[in-house]
Write a structure and sequence with these properties.
single chain, alpha+beta, Thiol Ester Dehydrase, Chain A, 2 domains, 3 helices
Length: 293
């Protein structure tokens, strides 16, 4: 299944601003269940769509010689899921760029409602040919670069049920290898080249998308909560201090540890560290707020 998540680019101001859309439909492969069991687009992949949109702007402006890869994100906030029938209106703003890295921020909305936002993302720029043929990237860009206006906001209505709902796509760790309920949790995930996102990420150099690992960590945070059995109920509100240090390749074994960084009646902060062969590859903090606050 394709891992190109922008359906159409509507507006592009070189090295400044780019706007595009992503329709959420039953045709999407990357659907999961929200807390109520309703199918929605995988939350971390909304952030992926914002990052891909920013990347298209930068790649076009360097004639597709260089491409951004995941690096550092100061803050990513999920405000609400995006559901089947929603259209994501995506905007990415380039704050600074040179031949070494790009810094950007962005937002995805459904109508006038913000559903996901990214602040202060930094992506190193690497040679395009390490990852994919330049002609192939140009072809992909030409397919989606169709300028136009924002589509009208869809009116509320009843979503038709066809009796054959798509199955959720699970992004989880393979097994728990250590657990101290309410204190820490350790899990491992084997990276398999058969995963559907590798052909697009990337043909010449398959590497694990950072957003896949982030979604696995969000689900691990929920597993941590289930085992902790805190008296208060928490929900994910923000991912902070995301840093990807190294590429993760098919065949790697990723070991991730989650520990409590802060815990009170209003907020729970979990600290995540992922390693491959004992070397750090990714860290972040997951901020969870008490439900009802």
């Amino acid at each position: 299944m394709r891992f190109l998540l922008v359906d159409r680019i509507l507006e592009l101001s070189p090295l400044q601003l780019v706007r595009g859309i992503k329709h959420i439909t039953r045709d999407d492969h990357y659907l999961c269940n929200d807390e109520q069991g309703t199918l929605c687009f995988i939350p971390s992949f909304i952030g992926e769509a914002i990052g891909q949109l920013a990347a298209w702007n930068v790649m076009l402006c360097n004639d597709f010689r260089l491409r951004p890869v995941a690096g550092v994100v100061s803050s990513a906030c999920l405000h609400r899921p995006a559901y089947i029938g929603d259209t994501l209106l995506i905007e990415a703003v380039i704050d600074d760029v040179d031949d070494v890295a790009v810094r950007y921020h962005g937002v995805a909305s459904v109508g006038d409602e913000v559903v996901f936002s990214i602040e202060s993302a930094l992506g190193p720029l690497l040679p395009m040919t390490e990852f994919i043929a330049i002609d192939e990237v140009r072809r992909q860009f030409s397919e989606i670069n169709r300028p136009g206006a924002w589509p009208p906001v869809a009116s509320a209505g009843e979503l038709l049920q066809n009796g054959n709902e798509p199955l959720p796509y699970l992004l989880v760790f393979d097994r728990i290898i250590a657990s101290d309920p309410g204190v820490s949790l350790c899990a491992e995930k084997r990276i398999n080249r058969a995963a559907s996102y590798f052909p697009d990420h990337f043909p010449h150099k398959p590497v694990l998308p950072m957003t896949v690992l982030l979604e696995c960590k969000l689900n691990l945070a929920r597993e941590f909560l289930a085992r902790a059995q805190f008296s208060q109920h928490y929900q994910v509100s923000e991912l902070r201090k995301i840093k990807m240090n190294e590429f993760i390749y098919p065949g790697d074994l990723v070991v991730t540890t989650v520990q409590v960084k802060r815990h009170d009646a209003d907020e729970l902060i979990l600290s995540f560290r992922s390693e491959v062969e004992g070397k750090r590859v990714c860290v972040l903090d997951v901020v969870m707020t008490a439900k009802g606050n």
